[in-house]
Amino acid sequence: MRILIWIIRVVVVLLFVWFAAKNADPITLRGYLDSTLTAPLALVLLAFFGGGLMLGLMASLMTMFRLKREIRKLNRALQHKTRDEIATLPPSSPAPHSTMPKL
Asked: Where are the alpha helices (DSSP H) in the chain?
């Protein structure tokens, strides 16, 4: 199974390298105030992909932090409820004395 995964990884990397080599032509990006940036198309695509990946990770981190905070809150409520239930239990009877004869 590991060999199959590594074969797939190598194929994907080779496809990316082939794509980058085929799209090495420089392009010009025009921005505000007549600013321009000239870079290879593959590099521009990689930069935008990385930016989108970072935005997606930031959005999921916000959700993860919110869920972790809710889990902590629920755990605290469960602990308080458990303590209250233990406090309201009647005291247990003492353990019976052993009836074994002493030697």
From this structure: 2-22, 41-88
